[in-house]
Amino acid sequence: MSARRILFVTHAYPRHAGDGAGSFLHRLALGLQAGGLTVRVLAPSGPKLPPAESLDGVEIRRFRYAPAGMESLAYTGTMAEQVLGSLSGKGALLGMLTAGTMAVRRMIDEFAPDVVHAHWWFPGGLLALGADRDVPLVTTMHGSDVRLARKVKLVHPLFRRVMARSAAVTAVSSWLAGEARAMAPKTAITVAPMPVDTQLFSAEATPRIPGRFLFVGRLNAQKGVRDLLEALSWAPADITLDIVGEGEDEVALKARARELGLDARITWHGAVARDALPAMYRRSQSVVMPSQHEGLGLVAVEAQLSRTPVIAYRSGGLPDVVDPQWGGRLVPAGDVRALADAMAAMHASAGAVGGWGASARSVMLDRFAPGVVAQGYRALYDRAVAARD
């Protein structure tokens, strides 16, 4: 049997080496190709992006969906805001759905994949559904797509159609799988996470800064930074905080930090290069994730691969990856005092952080190493093809 050919359909994929947009998909593609499969990626165009290129041996094709300068829906994580906030955004989405469906048809005819793997049921799964080609479809839900479906009931019929058309459906966490099953009870959903860069996020020895805690993520309501500021104001005064990220709430959050008298205890780093993150994880006593409805929590995985324990809200997919058995601490979502108490307890247990971190890294390697994840998806593709045959 010849090597399987897999077509990824996605709205997020690295535009260049080091780009974080959909970087986990690139790791999956590389893992699959290392195992003998051939992967091609179909994604929307964007500013200054060529229609075709190769990244580390993975072939990428991009489709135009709007005039130059207006193709801004993909790669930035702001698609929903653009579509809901403006007529031009709605027009761009219509163009993406129309042009994307035709692009999937052309790519199936040209590439002849054994499996189409749609990432995010919306828009990727919808594009594959509209293409109407007799190729097994695997659909993976990553988080934002499920939150959209839960929030906008008008899309439920489309969601169920994509689920029904899929030969296999995966979600990156058990919470996401449960949320999806609530909308499509007849759908069998496999929990299958995305791979993490286990070489970049290494166990290299780095001196920890006593009392230094870290937040990494977008500065918006869903990530819970306001709760973290309130918790810091209750936590011991020798706890300090690095905040990495940008977002729409940045100005308001900095103002709130000043109101709470926290300026001297917080360093706002803004966006940092991805290769700078591992050292920041390793020098921190703990990473704090007060997110709600997180699809999985890749930051938690990266931190624990770097041997740094995590404090998180018991929400979304975070309980899948944060566990007291390997030093993590979970507190009720929205309970700021419990979050502050967990930070204080972690600070008081500084001597145990190294041992917890080693245990956490071992667990993360077993679950998120690219080769492990790719092997699981290869088996899933085989089952999808066998079910059609």
From TrEMBL:
<keyword id="KW-0808">Transferase</keyword>
<feature type="domain" description="Glycosyltransferase subfamily 4-like N-terminal">
    <location>
        <begin position="19"/>
        <end position="199"/>
    </location>
</feature>
<keyword id="KW-0328">Glycosyltransferase</keyword>
<dbReference type="InterPro" id="IPR050194">
    <property type="entry name" value="Glycosyltransferase_grp1"/>
</dbReference>
<dbReference type="Pfam" id="PF13439">
    <property type="entry name" value="Glyco_transf_4"/>
</dbReference>
<dbReference type="InterPro" id="IPR001296">
    <property type="entry name" value="Glyco_trans_1"/>
</dbReference>
<protein>
    <submittedName>
        <fullName>Glycosyltransferase</fullName>
        <ecNumber>2.4.-.-</ecNumber>
    </submittedName>
</protein>
<feature type="domain" description="Glycosyl transferase family 1">
    <location>
        <begin position="212"/>
        <end position="345"/>
    </location>
</feature>
<dbReference type="GO" id="GO:0016757">
    <property type="term" value="F:glycosyltransferase activity"/>
</dbReference>
<dbReference type="Pfam" id="PF00534">
    <property type="entry name" value="Glycos_transf_1"/>
</dbReference>
<dbReference type="InterPro" id="IPR028098">
    <property type="entry name" value="Glyco_trans_4-like_N"/>
</dbReference>
